[in-house]
Amino acid sequence: MILINLLPHREAARKRRRDAFNAAIGASVLVGVLMAAAVYLYFQARLDNQSLRNQTLASAITVLESQIKEIATIETEITALRARQKAVEDLQSDRNLQVYLLNELVRQLPDGVYLTDMRQVDQTVTLKGAAQSNERVSELLRNLGNNTPYFAKPQLIEIVTGSVTLAPRDQRRVANFTISVRLLRSSEVQAAAAAAASPAGAAPAPAAAAAAAAAPATAR
């Protein structure tokens, strides 16, 4: 007996292949969506973690900035306290400075020189007086620059030829001078003495600068 299949088997086969293809596409789409969701959740978790770390760092930075401001304030207060302490120490060490000033001036004035005026502004002392000659003024400059630890940087500001009356018929020519010199504090004198006692400061200061400063100006 001969059996004849009259069903559309080709269309049924095509339908089965089409259904399998659609199922594969659907599975691929589902797998892709799941993978994309997994990647999104992974990176979102990392972003949340980094955001949390950034917030922690920002809080720590804020705390550190406040501490730095407190430290800067404390350093300013320490600097002010040190300045006050130094001012008090300078006042205590300079109590006898005027005595040293007058004592050294008496010692360093050469014969034939006398002072008519003395003024002090801060550490600068201005001396005015008269001398028998320009050489006496030069000697005074050398004495103030080399022979005393309490004076430094003597400078001849002015020297003018004048006359002084010793008697009704006795007038003599004199050199009227103005000199400025820096009066050293006791702490500076001690520091200079310590530097001179050390091997590095044992070399004597050259006298050329003092000689140049002591050169008398042209008389007016």
Task: Summarize the structure in words.
This protein is an alpha+beta fold and 220 residues long. It is 59% helix and 22% strand. It has a 4-stranded antiparallel sheet with strand order 1-2-4-3, with helices on one face. It is rod-shaped, with a radius of gyration of 49 Å.
Structure summary:
The protein has about 220 residues and is an alpha+beta fold.
SSE topology sketch:
Blueprint: H1 9-93, H2 97-108, E1 113-121, E2 124-131, H3 134-146, E3 151-167, E4 170-183, H4 186-197, H5 208-214
Antiparallel strand pairs: 1-2, 2-4, 3-4
Helix pairs in contact: 3-5
Based on CA atoms alone, the radius of gyration comes out at: 49 Å
Strand count: 4
Give the distance, in angstroms, between the N- and C-terminal Cα atoms: 160 Å
- The percentage helix is 55-70%
| Overall spatial form | rod-shaped
Q: Give me the strand/helix succession.
A: HHEEHEEHH
List the uncertain runs: 201-220
Approximate strand percentage: 15-25%
Strand order of the largest sheet: 1-2-4-3
Chain-averaged pLDDT: 80
Largest sheet: 4 strands, antiparallel
How many individual helices?
5
Structural class: alpha+beta
Any key phrases for this structure?
220 residues; alpha+beta; four-stranded antiparallel beta sheet; 5 helices; 4 strands; rod-shaped; disordered C terminus
